[in-house]
Amino acid sequence: xxxxxxxxxxxxxxxxxxxxxxxxxxxxxxxxxxxxxxxxxxxxxxxxxxxxxxxxxxxxxxxxxxxxxxxxxxxxxxxxxxxxxxxxxxxxxxxxxxxxxxxxxxxxxxxxxxxxxxxxxxxxxxxxxxxxxxxxxxxxxxxxxxxxxxxxxxxxxxxxxxxxxxxxxxxxxxxxxxxxxxxxxxxxxxxxxxxxxxxxxxxxxxxxxxxxxxxxxxxxxxxxxxxxxxxxxxxxxxxxxxxxxxxxxxxxxxxxxxxxxxxxxxxxxxxxxxxxxxxxxxxxxxxxxxxxxxx
Length: 295
Prior knowledge:
alpha/beta, disordered N terminus
């Protein structure tokens, strides 16, 4: 997470905006996609956001993905057709600035407030914890009758009362720290209970989210209710460790990468190849979600 706003003056962010944090010229797509530095994506499932009935919402936040790490933005080193489709069918904001590092951006997304006002100043040493008097977007959606869930990296406090289950999230699966050392079937937690993940974490988080949607749909059908969901998917890639399933790595292992960093910058090509492979894995999982919603 290495972006910065070109304007250091504090700005309030509307609660309906979705925050991200990697490269300066962030963009966002709303109705179907909101993205920027960390890619942030919102899918409105089933009906228009402007419909009178409550809309199901999915927000995806990726970690260390840059504005240029999408084919829709002209990067020919990779292909991201699913996210590209969201962009073409959605709305783009090309003046969308965020915090330079991880936890402050997440705090801004959750509260709609400039991060120093939330108590979140950095990503470690306790400075990642969101002040307890802050109202989160999850609190607001719960108050509006939504089921709330998060699957992925939290990074705004590990223990109660900072834990996601204490900040308005009914269902949580993932890890609460800022960095995880292994992405294949690692130790994770499910609502405060230690569990073992199933396979590559991004695939696992996405599967969990889709299973949650299925379970809630079944419950609504059985009980004759129409309770909507708000799902937050804070993916932890393409942040290190640079691990990605072979299906994507095999494509990039010997890739020439025609687009390179500036000549005055050294580029670690294996690292770049792994990051691009991780971005394509993200896009594949976005496609899985889109297909799920279409079905």
